[in-house]
Amino acid sequence: EGGERAPEAALLVDVFRLCYPEPVKLADLSATSVAMQFGLVPTGGAAKVKIYLKTRLDSSVPHSERIAAILARAGLHDHGLYEHLYARDSEAYFHGIGLDLDGDATPRLKLYIHAPSHAARSLAERLSARLRQLGQPAEGIVPAVNDLVESFDHTHLMDEVELAVALRADGPPTFKMSL
């Protein structure tokens, strides 16, 4: 109770509730199903907290509604990236969210999207196009992803890629792609 990180704790509780509106449904899942991962990053001061929530485990409320509510609670806007990257004509599928609580009163929320590895370039093109629409720098995204994909032996490449789009109230969206 109280303390300087109480608002972050309240945000975590609210995000969990929004992610899993009916948490009793989690009891029906396999014990190996991970609903939440929690990590601490020591910094010499207050630890940074990293939380990952697998949003697909509770379907009692439509996914897009839950993500919109989570973004609103965190005071963030996705700039239309959720709908743009997770469009029906995309091979991408939404995997989960990450919530970074760094003790600075500015949460960072990450949208994790997975797609088949052969779709890495088209996913990068979608992201780049949307960022350009938003007036954000995007010119290096597609060449960087092309270089990354081409640097791997394709016979040993993972069968899917992960795109994490990070959102903060005090800056433009950032992203990382993992193969």
Word description of this protein:
Helices cover 30% and strands 26% of the residues. It contains five helices and six strands, in the order αββααββααββ. A six-stranded antiparallel beta sheet has the order 1-2-3-4-5-6. β3 and β4 form a beta hairpin. α1 packs antiparallel against α2 and α4 runs antiparallel to α5. The relative contact order is 0.15.
Give me the secondary-structure category. Answer: alpha+beta
- Tell me the fraction of residues in β-strands, as a range: 25-35%
Percent in helix: 25-40%
Distance between the termini: 41 Å
By oligomeric state, this entry counts as: single chain
Mean pLDDT: 85
Number of strands: 6
Low-confidence stretches at least 5 residues in length (pLDDT < 50)? none
Strand arrangement across the biggest beta sheet: 1-2-3-4-5-6
| Major sheet attributes | 6 strands, antiparallel
C-alpha-based Rg, rounded: 17 Å
Shape summary = globular
Q: How many helices in DSSP terms?
A: 5
Order of helices and strands: HEEHHEEHHEE
Question: Key terms for this structure?
Answer:
179 residues; alpha+beta; six-stranded antiparallel β-sheet; 6 strands
What is the topological layout?
Blueprint: H1 6-19, E1 36-41, E2 48-53, H2 63-73, H3 81-85, E3 93-101, E4 108-116, H4 120-133, H5 141-150, E5 160-168, E6 171-178
Antiparallel strand pairs: 1-2, 2-3, 3-4, 4-5, 5-6
Compact summary:
30% of the residues lie in helices and 26% in strands. With 179 residues, it is of the alpha+beta class. A six-stranded antiparallel beta sheet has the order 1-2-3-4-5-6.
